[in-house]
Amino acid sequence: MKTRVRGIGALATLTVMIIWLNGTFGAGKTSTAKELVSLIPEAHYFDPEQVGFMLRHISGLPEVGDFQHWRPWRGLVVETASQVLKYVGGVLVMPQSVLVEQYWEEIRTGLREAGIPLRHFVLHADEITLTQRIESDVVDIGARQWRLDHLPKYRESFTWLSREGEVIDTAAVSPSEVAKDIAAAIDPTL
User: Fold this and answer.
1) What CATH number does residue 128 fall under?
2) Which keywords does this Swiss-Prot/TrEMBL entry list (predicted)?
């Protein structure tokens, strides 16, 4: 699946692709994703959480603490991304923490089988920085404790995450700078 994209360099005749921003809460995934969309020609922001929010409206699904535990979420994220790329082309920038290795393998395999190239970046910061960012977030105060409670899971997952993705330390840099680094990794001419 090819699409013509404005610009020069590697993205000028880019095959559609996904840039997945992984990492725990407070690492800067959403802010970086929004910055990144403005830097990459024909990039589109897609939040996989929206698929989970949709599934929450379906009666009869088992109670889980995280919608990622529903197998349909993982399959629908892949299918939705595939359908969106077929429709609009370009690059999907997807910020989403996936801390269960098996779930990541399902998503990665599904995207590969759909023929969609994937660049997986893990946005990382030390625990003190992450805690400060989570505690100072005034946008979603209700999620604060849930996010703090997931820091140990991120710590446990970091070994496989760093093997599966390109790690970028976000502790001392702004989301804008992280986005520029990712854009340059995708296409050095950007």
Assistant:
1) 3.40.50.300
2) ATP-binding, Nucleotide-binding
